[in-house]
Amino acid sequence: MIRRTRFAAASHSGHRCARTDYTRACQAAAAEVLARYSTSFSLAVRTLPPEVRIHITAIYAMARVADEIVDGGMAQLNAAQRQRELDAFEQRIAAAVATGASADLIAHAFALTARQVGIGPAEWEPFFASMRADIRPQAHTEESVAAYIHGSAEVIGQMCLAAFFQGAVPEADAASLRTGAMALGAGFQKVNFLRDLAEDTRLGRSYLPGLGAAGLDDAARDRIVAEIDADLATAGAVIGLLPARVRPAVRIAHALFAELNRRLARTPAAQIRTQRMRVSNPRKLALAARALTRAGAGGERP
Question: Which SUPFAM superfamilies has this protein been placed in (predicted)?
Fold first, then answer.
């Protein structure tokens, strides 16, 4: 009896270690996805405390894998095949959140985050709907692009907000915080619409209702830049309501996209139509340092 008890205890401990090792492996896989795909976002994420960084990394990795299915690493698949892959990935996400486990490393990492901070179908279903819209490109209307922005960007902002507060967004500030989170996501996405215009055109996509790549002139550019400025201003106004330990990361991301928008504002529309704008790595580091200095001066360091 004593031997069986000891063996059972050792076995139970081994199961706990195996679960911990698997979780760490899944979260490391999510971190590798982030590191490989985004220097800007990873720069901001590195300033987050570890317990929050894990969640933001998992959210990013889930979104990136879906995007790769649509038009990245699986571009060799036809539209019907990509549709099936995307549907299967969403099903794995839903099943993983329901059960708390998945053989899909990214789904497992995302599910742990979703269960801990309260992310549900109301967030990921609109996201996957927007991803499906990219499989068979269409010329967007004002209404359809608004729905696309909500699913592809605003709900990601809501997911990140839940992660920042570990699922407990303060009720008194909830409406303002959600408005700011969605505005930040929308602003980021509109920046991408402009700077990725040449590539989107090659893929047969148009996110600028009534314009398309050929129709973008300086006046249209100025209108979109102004919309982005308004979104970033709305988001910037509520950063102070976030937990102090996450504000530096948000300020860095905000500063990087604000810089991109300023560069787009100075770039002729004809150049935007053919060339992708970017911020150099030294400039990114300088902007990040400035954001951290501001955070430190305001007592915002975690």
Answer: Terpenoid synthases
